[in-house]
Amino acid sequence: MKKQILTKSLLRSRIKTKKFKKTNSFIAPHFWGNESFAQFVFLTDDYSNLYKYYYDSCRIEKYCDSLVNVFKGDVNEIALYSSKSKSYFIGIPDASAIYQNIDTSSCTVQPIVKYKYQNRLINCLEFDEDGILWGIGLTVLKYDPSTGLFEERNRYTGWNRTNYPRNSSMFRYQGQFYWVNGFESFFKLDTNDMRNSQFQFICPVCDSFNTIIRMVFTLREDCNSERVICLVQDKGQYEVNMQTGVFTYLCPVDPFIQNSISIQGLAVPWIKPAHYCDVLIDLDINNNSGNTQNGYFDTLSCFSQLKQRITDFDVNVFSDFGLMDSINIKILNPKNGSSERLDFAENHNILKVMNNQSFTLIPDLFATNDSFALALKEIIYENSDCEIVAGTRLIQFVAYKNNLSDTAISTLTFLHQQAFAGRDTIIELCELSPPISLFQTLGLCYHTGGIWNRQTQVPLIFNPKVDIVGNYQYIVGDTICGFDTATITFRVLKQPNLIVENNISLCFGQIYKISLPRGNYLWQDGSIDSIYTIRQGGIYWVETINGICNVRDSIEVKYNTSPTIEKINLICPNDSIVYKNKIYRSGEIIHDTISSLTTCDTIVEIRIKEFAISKISFNSDTIICKDELVNLSASTNFQSYKWSTGEDKSSIQVRSGTYTLTVTDVNGCKVNSSITIKESPPIQYSARPINPICPEDLGSIEIKNLQGGTAPFEYYLNGKKVSLSALDNLNSGLYVFKAIDSENCEVSDTIRILDAATFDVVFDDHVELEEGTSHSLTFSIQNPKIASIQVSPNSDVVIQNGIELKFSPKEDITYTLTFTDERGCELIKTITFTIKRNEGFYPPTIFSPNGDNINDIWQPTYGNVYTLVSASIYDRWGEQVYYSNDPSTGWNGNHKTQPCNPGVYVYLIELRHRDGSVKKFSGDLGLIR
Questions:
Q1: pLDDT band at 84 (very low <50, low <70, confident <90, very high)
Q2: How many CB atoms lie within 10 A of CB 617?
Q3: Region 669-675 average pLDDT
Q4: Which of 267, 276, 311, 478 has the fewest Cβ atoms surrounding its Cβ within 10 A?
């Protein structure tokens, strides 16, 4: 996998070299030529030896012997940078700010610049992504190795050669500088004014007085992530989460580092090399089109139709992050408006979002960057305008990946358009056709300004009646791109004759045929025969078909109305009649004809229909409740009734069952119908009360095993409509539950919900205690019994025998007591304790030993409950500047008879309480003058 990445990177570097100007040359360290990302960091020690430290195994090995003779002094700090065009080390001997280039292949030094700062000690170095070197010490330093220019940002007030960020580490994370002081604090660095640096967090595994952070560095193991590694003396190597401040242990400190060397400098190769983690699009790798950048160039002259490729065949699309997110292609300067467009056939696993003059290519699940390259080769520039404006078109390609992008331009230059005379055409006209313009025959996009080789009687108008048939030529062009000719051939056809027949009248049922000479015909119904049969009246037309000259003629055919006799014969349903020995049923028609010698025959038509029979309608429910009687009634517009029960009236009273009724209407026709009365199954269920367990609880009613009845159901509780899911949160008392189905059948029950037993505990809820004493609470046997007691907060509380509490609070406090009885019911109460105290300990937080007899001595008050064991004060580097075990003395702000600098110091005080316990107090105090 590493070899594959290297191959792509080298190819990519080779392609993109043309995009960068040459800069000052530097000696390139040889060790990272075959590395894609950092596998180690470089360290120096007190003797200026150079080491490779492998962070993955916490292993160290020497790389160069001492550089003291080369540097003329110890190497205090080093930094490393690698870009597209340069790679170099920079070292600072003796923290005196002389910058030199280290050639690690021979362990020699090439001076870059000799610039010495006076009283500007530099303790940390780090490059940014642009190859600019930054350092911190007594000042913030900015140095550009390519120009040799230095710049100081600010000097931190109060720092001097013995008081500045020593034993510090500086690193970059996600584009931002950070630094760590020599003990435990992480800061986000403000390079404009270091005083505005923001505190981030404290090293959780460090001891600010005994253990220091030896080094911190940032690593890239791929193009998508950064890791911050921290080496803590006596502890081990940790990975640092810069968002949470959490340290994750990786491996122990190498003994050689721990015992033998004092780390002076730290350099990280390839933190973010500029020529890695890149995005590339090149339309012409070998530049054979003439474009020396990453674009494509083409010039077209004497073109007639414009469909032009916009890339070379050697297109390259590359991303160190893998598959490209998208590529946008756009015509930047169209000169023919909407006539110019880009076209692309979706293939190679690449999809397009199209908008004529711009579109975006996006990959599908199976695409690769080679798929993008293949697709780019097939993009076509098209111009459909008849008059293409000469000039240069710029087509922009932008490739996107992981918030990075690369742009390439395709340049198409159109010099001169070839003239177009039109298409060669054969024009066939009838001799009676109207005249036609000669230019009309040329079609679209012909160029004006040409000449015709033949004249017509009316200039430029061809008349088929008078003008000569044959070839007419139109010639147009110039001396640059030559001439073009369009040939128009005119043919004139004679008009054919067509006569059908005169209009005719026919009797009903007659058939009439029209016969025409052989030829090509088209009738109004699509028929093409020369013989046409007519069976009904109407206008019929036919025309000759010879492709050019068509003639149409028509004939009108009328059918005389024959005398017609129509009759209707009514019968009962399912009956029939006999006419001329043939049986006819309802819905059939009897046809008969009475012949005539002088006129059209008379037609007799008899329609067989049924009497209009009223349907039997019943007025009764079809589902009834159990054992219920229902009145079964039929419509009363019949002559007689006969039920299957034997009764002969229109209405009877019945229970569930099936009943048939036969009726006779006024025409003597009989009709019967049946109806089924069903009995609804009885509603059944079980109901029980669920009484509340605890006093604050509510009861509920449980309805189970509901069956029978006819859905849907309605439910009522004490006359109020409810749902089965809402029979809860009920107070104690008597309830009536009723269920009614869709047939209005109902059933009801009476249910009683009982009260829960009460639960209470009585005690004094406010107690005043002397400091150091206790208070006990004992609870008698209850009914229900107390099962458990919980106290919050639970400090200084002892629960004995489950129901006895002993409180020993050290300060005013309110406890929350939660009692749980044997049923699981809870009772919550509070008890408040007030502590009677004597005067306590107070340390001042600021003093000003400036000799004005005002607040010149820092001296705590210890009260009457504490005695002093010891009091110590430390400066910010951990050095002890004051110690005493005498409560009557204080600190005057001096150390070893010398006044201490203004600033923040740390006190550590041990006191013995009158109960014998020893307490430690620590905090910050400010010294001002």
A1: very low
A2: 11
A3: 87
A4: 478
Indicate the burial class of 59 (C-beta count within 10 angstroms; 0-12, 13-18, 19 or more). Answer: middle
Question: What is the Cα gyration radius of the chain?
Answer: 54
Nearest to 521 by CA among 501, 494, 541, 493: 541
For residue 801, give every residue at least 6 positions away whose Cβ sits within 8 Å of its Cβ, in sequence order, or none.
none
Instruction: Give one DSSP letter per residue of 182-233, joined into a string.
Output: SSSEEEE--SS-GGGPEEEEE-TT--TTT--EEEEEEEEEETTEEEEEEEET
Residue 207 vs residues 240, 627, 822: alpha-carbon distances, Å: 17, 94, 52
Q: pTM, whole model, 2 decimals?
A: 0.39
Looking at the predicted structure, is the pLDDT value of residue 874 above 90? yes
Residue with tokens 């469909």: 307
> Which phi-psi region, left, alpha or beta, contains residue 693 (left: φ > 0; alpha: ψ -120 to 50)?
alpha
The 3-state DSSP class for residue 526 equals: coil
User: How far apart, in whole angstroms, are the C-alpha atoms of residue 689 and residue 698?
Assistant: 11
What are the respective helix, strand and coil percentages of the chain, to the nearest 5? 5, 50, 45
**Cβ neighbours, 10 Å, residue 53:** 24
Nearest CA among 243, 275, 220 for reference residue 404:
275
Phi, psi for residue 32 in degrees, rounded to 5 = -100, 15
Count of CB atoms within 10 A of residue 358's CB?
Answer: 16
Q: What angle do CA 336, 337, 342 make, to 5 degrees?
A: 90
Determine how β-strand 236-240 pairs with β-strand 247-251: antiparallel
Pairing outcome for strands 552-560 and 504-507: parallel
What is the average per-residue pLDDT within 247-255? 87
Question: Would you call 462 exposed, middle or buried from its count of C-beta atoms within 10 A (0-12, 13-18, 19+)?
Answer: buried
Res 15 pLDDT > 50: no
Residue 112 and residue 100 in contact, taking contact as beta carbons nearer than 8 Å: yes
668 φ/ψ angles, rounded to the nearest 5 degrees: 80, 10
Q: Write the pLDDT tens digit of every residue in 301-360.
A: 887 777 889 999 999 998 877 889 999 999 999 998 888 888 877 666 888 776 667 888
| Three-point CA angle 55, 56, 62, nearest 5° | 50
Q: What is the DSSP string of 417-484?
A: BPP-----EEEEEETTSPPEETGGGG-SSPPSS-EESS--SBTTEE-TTTSPPEEEEEEEEETTTEEE
* Both structure tokens of 323: 């598959």
Instruction: Enumerate long-range contacts of 500-506, CB under 8 Å, 24 or more apart.
Output: 500/542, 500/553, 500/554, 500/555, 501/555, 502/555, 503/555, 503/556, 503/557, 503/558, 504/555, 504/557, 504/558, 505/557, 505/558, 505/559, 505/560, 506/537, 506/557, 506/558, 506/559, 506/560
Name the strand (E) or helix (H) holding 14. helix 2-16
